[in-house]
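re the bet — no i am not wrong, look at it urself. input seq straight from the record:
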Amino acid sequence: MTNESAKAELASMIDEFQQQMQVLGEIQQKRSQLMATGYALQKQVTVVVNADCTVIETRIDPELEDLPLYELGKAITEAAQAAATELGRKSAELMNPIQERRGRMPKMSDLIEGMPDLTGRIPEPIPASTAPPNSPERQQDQPAMTFTDVEELDDITPGRIRAEDW
């Protein structure tokens, strides 16, 4: 690559970067206005979340007043999770223009000879569990702690350490 073509390529990248920053600012503005709604029990329970996935409104049909609290709690959780899923879909849709632009830009490995393409090494995000805190699913995900570098000590009075033990 000649010096002039490298300069032209760099100028093009800088211009593309400036355009991306402008688009990103517009996307951030639109994102701040996002809301999503989730429903449960045939729309008798409604939860609305904002762009940060914070619950901003919960509506419960008065006809559910005799519903056991544990069932109402499950319905509210289900509606909140549905709202969060919808928000994720809307956020991803909003980010599409940036993803498309990023796909058109050259990678560092395209610009610097011999540099490996490391994009394949980026791990995929692991979806967070929607299981309740003490559910069996959560217990399986957390292996018991085991220590392999343990030393057995004899004749140690609990709560006291003697100088010769060090």
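see?? The chain has a mean pLDDT of 83. told u. also DSSP finds four helices and three strands in the chain. so pay up
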